[in-house]
Fold this protein.
Amino acid sequence: MMNKRLKEKAGFGALAVLTFLAVVPVLAIIGYLVWQGWPALTWEFLTQPPRKFLTEGGIYPAIIGTLALTVGTIMVAMPLGIGTAIYLVEYAGENVFTKLIRIAIINLAGVPSVVYGLFGMGMFVLTLGLGRSLAVGALTLGILTLPIIISTAEEALLAVPDSYRYASLALGATKWQTVRRVVLPVALPAILTGTILGIGRAAGETAPIMFTAAVVYTPRLPDSIYDQVMALPYHLYAISTEVPNVSQHMAFGAALVLLAIVGAMNLVAVVIRTRMRLKRLR
Amino acid sequence: MGDKNKMETRNLNLYYKGFQALINVSFPVKENTVTALIGPSGCGKSTFLRTLNRMNDVIEGTRIKGEVLLDDENIYDAEVDPVVLRKQVGMVFQRPNPFPMSIYDNIAYGPRIHGRKNKDELNEIVEKSLQAAALWDEVKDRLHKSALGLSGGQQQRLVIARVLAVDPQVILMDEPASALDPISTAKLEDLIHQLKSSYTIVIVTHNMQQAARVSDFTGFFLNGEMIEYSVTNTMFTAPRIKQTEDYITGRFG
């Protein structure tokens, strides 16, 4: 008897230690970023463009650029991804064609992000002649995010019980009415969560935008989707590797801001999900 | 009790992939009566029920031969739209399946998808349907609360009210009491009795007493075939066929 209890305690103890170890790097990263980056976070840093070859001044254009790219990515990836998932789950059924699509999506998810960058440059910048721009960056990041959005949206739709679909169809609803009025509202919290997490990931990518949208320095804010922009991840890359004599605090300050943006998006995802869940049960 | 056949199947065969689930079923459903379908699990009675509103169409790989008539018209004719048919032939499922919306929105769902938008009209339909389903008094103060907060028996009556709201002629019920406690079951059976005057009802049940209590006619299914059909009283007192007797006396199934 004692032996069994001891084993139980040892087992849970070991699991607790492993959990702790898994959390340590996260806390360490955040802690280090705050420690190193905090001194750089001044009002000027957040609201002014860089000066003197990025060694002074702020990161305002990069913040705006990253936000603009993120909005663009949402506009590209959300309708495409959610639409594809709805088609695959609700309409297409199982056949060779949909199997091919699924295999393509899975493989797309495994492609390194730098390849998306090269594709974006080759396809949009050179072949279609769109030029390096906000639009092309958003398209490239959108494609990068698609597999995540499609597969989370697919899972969310599959998790909706068929009994809802049957109930609706049996009342004389069309398939589209059923999807639009019953299935989608139920799946939406999970779809939005997945989408926002995916886009948060894309917001931090450097490789896809370095050939397609981002520039090392422009004091100008974009006023059309054909403008090039500064972006936080690329800025970080640039000041860490290309520019000598940048204070460490500037780099970590930028990293901290990037983390805060992505963190805020994830927070939004959590809030949306919780509110929609509660609303349904009340 | 009407003598008119509200629905009728003629030599109905249903194949699911390689398997024949229904074999030559010819079966009448009399208007304004309750018809019970009994038989052991897997005998095809639920499949048969779903041919009556073409819900089998939803399942990939099903194929049908023969006729299913509603008011003497074959519902499998090419020009019949299953969406329109299902408005006339409603269905209640085994497990209560209210949508995760308010009670009001559940009932208004059907009328809304069929194009009704007027608020007063919807209010009236909701109240009338809930009253007809004997649920109004229990929920009238919380119409805008989630339907998932209701008990199982209330949910099943809500689902029936939801069906009534689209004003069907026939209501199909697939073991509607199998997930309910005895008190809720009794309420449901009372409700079925009341609905009979305005609707034609077909009910699948595993419970012999229930079939005896609620139905006017009973059909016994076995291995995809309709073995015996008769007035419920006769079926349970003097079945003509040995297999029927064995089943209703509990010797198998």
